[in-house]
Amino acid sequence: PRQIVVGGRPPMSADDIASITTMQLFVGGLVRHSAGPELTAQEQALVELLGAVGSVTIKVIPLKGFGFATFTEVDHVKAAITQFNSTTFQGQRLSLSPAKGQ
Question: What is the per-residue burial (b if ≥16 Cβ within 10 Å, else e) of 51-82?
Answer without folding.
Answer: bebbebebebeeeebebebbbeeeebbbbbbe
